[in-house]
User: Which sequence fits this backbone?
């Protein structure tokens, strides 16, 4: 089955002083990728539940919430109630990955599982049938603006051969110059941060990504 290609701008790279405007500037995307960091699982700290609840009021975009936090089960219900549509947790941060994914699904949300660049695919073997989406981090999580780590493309390709009917997302260092390689690795949900939010005309940049999507699909 052919998977739909989706673009998910990451608000980690947005200007938080005008966040409503920043979100509206990417309204023609598919998802809004929201990174939540607790300062423990990763070194950085970002936004949390109150911000998500607030911005839920200003957009109809699908909220793709990426929890980079320890023991995510403590907050799954709160993020679900705040307006998340997809909740992705890290395999490395959970001691009951199956249970946590089932909890996400119990709130009628899509459940995703993420792994860091150096984490083996073996870490998600037990949830291949349970998760709705798999997120391959192509940079070390915690900070935006990093360069894509090339070996993560092979990891995504290997995963795509195992879960051919599931969404595979990649996050970190993706831009117009390398997005074709990312798509060729089997990824169909593209997270883009600075490559979109660091330009003035976000609508134009999103359309350029969609042109790249079409070029790839025409070649496939």
Assistant:
């Amino acid at each position: 089955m052919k998977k739909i290609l989706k673009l998910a701008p990451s608000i980690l790279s947005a200007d938080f002083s005008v966040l409503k405007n920043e979100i509206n500037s990417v309204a023609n995307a598919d998802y809004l990728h929201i990174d939540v960091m607790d300062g423990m699982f990763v070194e950085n700290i970002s936004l949390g539940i109150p911000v998500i609840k607030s911005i839920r009021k200003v957009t109809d975009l699908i909220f793709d919430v990426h929890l980079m936090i320890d023991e995510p089960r403590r907050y799954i219900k709160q993020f679900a109630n705040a307006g998340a549509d997809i909740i992705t947790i890290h395999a490395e941060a959970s001691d009951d990955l199956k249970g946590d994914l089932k909890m996400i699904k119990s709130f009628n949300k899509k459940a995703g599982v993420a792994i860091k660049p150096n984490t083996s695919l073996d870490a998600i073997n037990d949830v291949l049938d349970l998760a709705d989406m798999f997120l391959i981090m192509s940079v070390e999580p915690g900070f935006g603006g990093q360069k894509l780590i090339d070996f993560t493309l092979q990891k995504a390709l290997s995963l795509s051969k195992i879960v051919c009917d599931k969404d595979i997302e990649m996050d970190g260092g993706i831009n117009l110059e390398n997005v074709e390689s990312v798509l060729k690795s089997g990824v169909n949900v593209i997270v883009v941060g600075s490559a979109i939010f660091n330009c003035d005309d976000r609508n134009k940049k999103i359309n350029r990504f969609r042109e790249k999507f079409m070029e790839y699909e025409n070649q496939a």
About this structure: The longest strand covers residues 31-37. The mean pLDDT is 95.
